[in-house]
Amino acid sequence: MNVIAEVQPMNFVKNLKYMGLGMLGIFIVIGVIMLLTIILNAVTKERKKPEDTDKQ
Amino acid sequence: MDVLYQNLLNLDWKMIVMWAIGGILIWLAVKKDMEPTLLLPMGFGAILVNLPLSGAVSHYLEDGSLNGEEGPLSILYHAGIANELFPLILFIGIGAMIDFGPLLSNPVLMLFGAAAQFGIFFTLCTASVFFGLKDAASIAIIGAADGPTSIVVGQKLQSGYIGAIMVAAYSYMALVPIIQPPIIKLLTTKKERMIRMEYTQKPVSKTTRILFPICITVIAGLIAPASVALVGFLMFGNLIRECGVMDSISETAQKVLANLVTIFLGITIASQMQADKFLQVNTLLILGLGLVAFIFDTAGGVIFAKILNLFLKKKINPMIGAAGISAFPMSGRVVHKMALKEDPTNFILMQATGVNVSGQIASVIAGGLILNFFL
């Protein structure tokens, strides 16, 4: 197949929508995962046991 | 006596070129220590399948019927790569190797992993100038810097260039220490490369470590169902690691399982490196587009960090953005070494590793999105 003969420069512009959708999609998914991680960290935070003051 | 030299007459100059390519891959693996576990089997395999009438691969007649017996590498290809089994199993091992600790400790680092997938989508647009959309998407995913994702996406989209895509994906991963530094230097000033970043290791509970892989699988499955096998196998491996009750299995997944699959993966990929399929103008073009993907991934991460710096009081060393390319763990190490070169007392390894790990997740999600768009 001769690719040079089939070069379609306008396809770059035509497919920019996939670039926009793809990057938006990734940031949304990663954003959701990030928020979830922050919530997980907050909810499952291991609290320090209060020191036993009764002991001598 | 004819028997001794008869097959020599079937030798073609293209086969000799492929021997040379195989030799280069072996040289890179042995002499330069670049991804030896993959480049060495691929290099040897490239020689093996390019011997005239090689019995290692199947040969077909013009009408498509099998000529003689099936070759073992062709059998392995259909058993493990055409159905995406090998890369998925390898993902269990990779998942078991990854410590998400630095990322869980600083979840904001995940944004850099997302930004550094820019090269994939830029290359998708560029490749669509030369190829059909499905092939362009398969080529673009080389920018995931993640071999198994490239194989799965290429196979699912039934790309006719899977051999070149796999070779490009694994070769460029090995070449990360050569590709990334000049791009990072071009986009940053010395002052920026010397920015120090405080690292405070916040404690991460065991519950978070266990719930994280499960939640990621559910989220990825809900948003990009096509990616759920990739994400799921990666996270299953990580769950084995983090659960704390499967230590010996985790060790097996990290070492024995990953090594076994890698041996077969490399040499089976080589079955797609037969001279008549591989030595085409398109292969060179795909290798070039793969490089474009890596360059723009790196640039995407660095530029995103620079944009954030415009708004942040505590500046970020923009080099860590480049580690979002995935290519775990090379990319994180490259960035760390560059920071040390500028200032021997500036340690950004933990931040770079966190970004690098987030790149691993983001690249799999990018693969899933690409499948969602084009499957």
Itemize the secondary structure elements and their pairings.
The complex is a heterodimer of chains A (56) and B (375).
Chain A: H1 10-14, H2 16-43
Chain B: H1 2-6, H2 13-31, H3 36-48, E1 59-60, E2 66-67, H4 72-81, H5 85-97, H6 101-105, H7 110-115, H8 118-127, H9 133-140, H10 147-156, H11 162-174, H12 176-187, H13 190-193, H14 206-223, H15 228-242, H16 247-269, H17 275-278, H18 281-311, H19 330-342, H20 349-374
Antiparallel strand pairs in B: 1-2
Helix pairs in contact in B: 2-3, 3-16, 4-16, 5-10, 5-15, 5-16, 8-9, 8-18, 9-10, 10-11, 10-20, 11-18, 12-18, 12-19, 14-15, 15-16, 19-20
> Biggest sheet of chain B, in brief?
2 strands, antiparallel
Q: What is the string of helix and strand elements of chain A?
A: HH
Averaged pLDDT of chain A, please?
Answer: 81
- Outline the low-pLDDT stretches of chain B: none
Strand fraction band of chain B? Answer: under 5%
Helix and strand content put the structural class of chain A at mainly alpha
Q: Supply the number of structural domains of chain B.
A: 1
Separation of termini of chain B?
55 Å
What is the radius of gyration of chain A computed over CA atoms, rounded to a whole number of angstroms? 26 Å
User: What is the string of helix and strand elements of chain B?
Assistant: HHHEEHHHHHHHHHHHHHHHHH
Helical fraction of chain A equals 55-70%
Major protein interface? A-B, 36 and 48 residues
Identify the strand order in the major beta sheet of chain B.
1-2
Count of helix runs of chain A? 2
| Shape annotation of chain B | globular
Q: Could you walk me through the main structural features you see in this protein, from its secondary elements to its overall organization?
A:
- The complex is a heterodimer of chains A (56) and B (375).
- Chain A is mostly helical.
- Chain A is rod-shaped, with a radius of gyration of 26 Å.
- Helix content of chain A is 59%, strand content 0%.
- Chain A starts with 9 loop residues before the first helix and ends in a 13-residue tail after the last helix.
- Chain B contains 20 helices and two strands.
- Chain B starts with a helix and ends with a helix.
- Chain B has a two-stranded antiparallel sheet with strand order 1-2.
- Chain A binds chain B through residues 1-4, 6-9, 11-12, 14-16, 18-19, 21-23, 25-34, 36-38, 40-41, 44-46, and chain B through 103-104, 107-108, 110-111, 113-114, 117-118, 120-122, 124-126, 128-131, 133, 136, 202-205, 207-208, 211-212, 215-216, 219-220, 223-224, 280-282, 285, 358, 361-362, 365-366, 369-370, 373.
